[in-house]
Structure to design on (90 residues):
C-alpha cells in the first residue's frame, strides 16, 4: 500500500465538513485535542502508481480546490509506502 499524511489547519467552523474522496482504499481524519482546528489526514491507496494517477487527475484537482478553501494554509504533505499495518492487510 502507499499513501500520504497531511497536517491541515482548517478555518474555524470548517472542521465539520466531510472530506470524502472516491477511489481511496481508506481515509482517516484526526482532530487534535490541543487544537480542534488542527487536523491530520491519512489516505491510503493500493499502490504508489494508483496514488500518483489520482494526484494527476483533473477530478482530484477539483476536489483539492474545494478542500483548500476550508484551510488556513496549504497542507504539509508527507508521502510514503506503508510498511506496517496491524492487523496486517490480506
Amino acid at each position: 500500500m502507499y499513501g500520504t499524511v497531511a497536517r491541515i489547519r482548517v478555518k474555524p467552523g470548517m472542521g465539520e465538513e466531510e472530506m470524502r474522496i472516491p477511489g481511496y482504499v481508506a481515509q482517516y481524519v484526526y482532530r487534535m485535542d490541543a487544537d480542534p482546528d488542527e487536523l491530520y489526514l491519512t489516505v491510503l491507496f493500493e499502490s504508489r502508481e494508483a496514488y500518483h494517477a489520482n494526484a494527476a487527475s483533473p477530478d482530484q484537482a477539483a476536489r483539492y480546490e474545494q478542500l483548500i478553501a476550508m484551510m488556513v494554509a496549504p497542507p504539509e504533505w508527507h508521502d510514503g509506502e506503508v510498511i506496517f499495518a496491524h492487523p496486517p492487510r490480506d
Observations:
- The chain has one domain: 2-81.
- Residues 11 and 66 are 13 Å apart (CA to CA).
- The helical segments are 48-55, 58-68.
- DSSP finds two helices and four strands in the chain.
